[in-house]
Amino acid sequence: AKESGRNAYKFFTASMNKTVTARMKVELALRRAVKNNEFVLHYQPVVSLKSGNIVGAEALIRWQHPTDGLVYPDSFIAIAEETGLIETIGQWVVMQACKDLKNWHNQGLKLNVAVNVSSRQCKQTSATPIAEVIETALAENDIQPNHLKVEITESLLMDNSKEMISTLQKIRSLGVAIHMDDFGTGYSSLSYLKHFPIDVLKIDRSFIEGAIDDKTDASLVEAVVLIGHSLNLKLVGEGIETQQHFDYLQSLGCDYGQGYHISKPIPAQAFIELCLNKR
Ligand code: C2E
Ligand code: CA
Ligand code: CA
Ligand code: CA
C-alpha cells in the first residue's frame, strides 16, 4: 500500500541502504548464475532405519560461484524467493534431480529423490506452475512418480493456504508424495495435518539434537512419531549426527533417517559410488 511505502521510505536509513545494495548485488549475481548454469545439486542419503539401507536422497542446491567457491542455500534462497528467481531455479532443480534419478535407475539403483519446493513456487499465478514442471520432468526422464518426493516447509503453509493446498493436491495427484519439512518448527498447529495433503513428516533436527538429554524434546519426538503413525504418515528423522541419535530414532519406530552420521550431502557422482559400494 501507499501508506506503508511512504513509511518504508522514511525508515530507509544508511545502514539499510547498504543492506539493500548488498542484496541487489546478490540478485544480479543470481541472475547471472541462472544464465550461466552455476548451480549444482548435492545429495544427502536417506536410509531406512529398519534395514539401514539407502532408499534415496534429498537434493540440496549449491551455487558454484566463479570466485567465492561453493555457496550454500541459506545465503541465496531467500533472495531468490523475494526476486522471483526461485521459479527458474526451482524448475532447474526438479529437472536436474529427475535427470540424475534416471541415471541412477539406469544403473540398476531403485532410489528415490526428494526436492525442496518453496512457497513462492506454489503460486497459482505462476507462468509455469510447479505441478506442470514436475509432470514434464517425470515424463521426459521416464520416471515413475512414486520415486519423486516434494518437500515443503511447515511455516510457508501459513500464507495462502488455499493456493498451497490446491498446488499440493495437483502434485499429489501426479503420484508424487508430499513431505512436510522441519516439522515442529513452524507456526503450524496440529490441524494442518488434517487440512494439508501430506504423506511424510520430517522431524526437525533441533528436536533430535535435544532428545538425548532433554526430556521435553524427547517427549515431543516420541509424540510426533505416534501422531504421524496414527495418521498413516511415514516419518523421517533429520540431523542424525551420532550412533546414539540413530539408535534412538530406530527404537521409536521412526521409518527413515538422514544426517551427517550417515553422510553429508555429496555430489551426484559420489552419491552413486556410495550406493554401488554398499550394494
Ligand atoms: P532443509 O531442507 O531442512 O535441508 C537440511 C539441511 O540440513 C541441509 O542444509 C543439510 O546439509 C543439513 N544437514 C543434514 N544433515 C545434517 C546434520 O546431521 N547436522 C546438521 N547440523 N545439518 C545437517 P543445506 O544444504 O545448507 O540447506 C539449507 C536449506 O536450504 C534447506 O534446509 C532448504 O530449506 C533450503 N534448500 C536447499 N536446497 C533447496 C532447493 O533446491 N530449493 C529450495 N527452495 N530450498 C532449498
Ligand atoms: Ca528439506
Ligand atoms: Ca529439514
Ligand atoms: Ca531447514
UniProtKB/TrEMBL annotation:
Organism per entry: Litorilituus sediminis
Domain EAL, chain residue ranges per copy: 23-279
Domain of life: Bacteria
Name of the molecule in the record: cyclic-guanylate-specific phosphodiesterase
